[in-house]
Amino acid sequence: MAIHVEGLLAIVIFYVLILIVGIWAAWKNKNSGISEGTDRSESIMVGGRDIGLFVGGFTMTATWVGGGYINGTAESVYLPGSGLAWAQAPFGYALSLVVGGLFFAKPMRSRGYVTMLDPFQQLYGERMGGLLFIPALLGEIFWSAAILSALGATLSVIVDININMSVVISALIAIFYTLVGGLYSVAYTDVVQLFCIFIGLWISVPFALSNPAVSDIGVTAVNTVFQSPWLGEIDPSDGWMWADNFCLLMLGGIPWQVYFQRVLSASSASYAQVLSFLAAFGCLVMAVPSVLIGAIGASTDWNQTSYGPVSPVQKDESDMILPIVLQHLCPPFISFFGLGAVSAAVMSSADSSILSASSMFARNIYKLAFRQSASDREIVWVMRITIFVFGALATAMALLTGSVYGLWYLSSDLVYVIIFPQLLCVLFVKGTNTYGSVAGYIFGLLLRIGGGEPYLRLPPFIYYPGWQTREKEQRLTREVERFVEQRFPYKTVSMLASLLSNAAFSYVAKYLFESGTLSPKYDFLDAVVSRHSKETMDKTTLVTHDNINLSELAAVRPRHGGSLAGTFVNTDVLTDEGNVSPDSSTEHQ
């Protein structure tokens, strides 16, 4: 196997630059937050809560702008029958950041949470927090594995090096600087990586456009030349599917730790909102070169290029259209610079996902659920170990699992149908409890899994209205695969069912226990009786008996121990009055 020396040199330069910036960021901020009394573990997770506007804007943009974003956008625009009309990621994720900034960033940041799971464990308890950790963890791990897998394929196209070697080296670099510096290293390397992506792709676009094999993209946008127009169209019969997928991106893009670790690292709640809006603009800007590269691919006569007469879509290589355009339509030195940009994009996604998964495990599972007395040093070491373990797991999946994208699609759907409605309830719906949370979790899980997942060859056991049987031919093997296509917006319906069942079961459970219909001994989740014991006690009886003084009564045992409840909220950052959780008025009376 031949190795292109220039391409390998370009990758080495980019990787060394990113590694140096990551180590420098860790050294520069090694004592940040410690002097103010912040734990070292919290400093690693949320960067001492002093991330400024410039670095914060870049790292918030990098929440979604990574290898999957730029490659996926180019692929959607290029694919015949899809086109720009179905390239939903740029607008979907941009609106996700806008909605997150408007409604979620301020309450989460102003209450001083450290991870996304904190409000769940505060309101619903440690066990429910552990259940919600599962889809959150799977989403982060599968996302990291998917983009590492894409990186290996991309590098092998241009540089012609071993896929396994490129994936392992990239993962090791991302794991190393994340281990050393935590969120600081992730944030500062995001600045470098986004610059690399923007400059690398924009340098490549003019050369690709001027290639003699490329037709006018303005003409191919609306006319069939080499394939169907790249603008694409939305058939009226596909409208519900389009809307379902768009809602998945817009609303399902909010309840991710990769987003909230940036929100919670902002220096104030208002800054967190501003960073979200800046990142939304950044998402749109960073998508432009990818859209153009996809359009260029759709406007190319591949018979005139070194790629050969068979187009990428006929070779089943449409997912690699971006590196193919860079290699075959640009001069070598330009394509190698663009390759470095793609590699940088992948690491900007992988590092933050690995840090997110380890932060949630170390704090919400290890500390709050198992070892509430764990020292800060112990938590730091748990984080370091899990960063390595989760990074190794994502790398292994990228190398060994052929259906890693299917796993990520399914896990991202579960984040949307399970965690998003739970987040809505815990922040904005007063009176929800653990019984409702469990019911919402089960309803969302069953309704989504019931719809099946073609990428994993998971057959449905719920056939929603409008379902159809489709056939897909593998272009290389000519095998015909049949699968069920759910044309009903079942993902959004599953999310709404989860939301409504959470509220309904919560209120039913609350009524049954507080009305005396069910004995307090049946409150096995300690979700109603012990939580609202002060409200359900007959205060009138206690006060009217002269021989009983309220000051002599033993305090009602709280649902969480004092040390546990105190770990969720950092009172030093509660600066925004009025931003209290729906049930905090009863907890702190």
TrEMBL record:
Its main location: membrane. One of its GO terms (biological process) is acetylcholine biosynthetic process. GO terms for molecular function: choline:sodium symporter activity. CDD domains: SLC5sbd_CHT. The keyword Membrane applies. It catalyses: choline(out) + n Na(+)(out) = choline(in) + n Na(+)(in). Transmembrane segments: none annotated. One of its GO terms (cellular component) is presynaptic membrane. It holds the Pfam family SSF. It is found in: Presynaptic cell membrane. Keywords: Glycoprotein, Ion transport, Membrane, Neurotransmitter biosynthesis, Sodium, Sodium transport, Symport, Transmembrane, Transmembrane helix, Transport. High-affinity Na(+)-coupled choline transmembrane symporter. Functions as an electrogenic, voltage-dependent transporter with variable charge/choline stoichiometry. Choline uptake and choline-induced current is also Cl(-)-dependent where Cl(-) is likely a regulatory ion rather than cotransported ion. Plays a critical role in acetylcholine (ACh) synthesis by taking up the substrate choline from the synaptic cleft into the presynaptic nerve terminals after neurotransmitter release. This is High affinity choline transporter 1. It comes from Cirrhinus molitorella (mud carp).
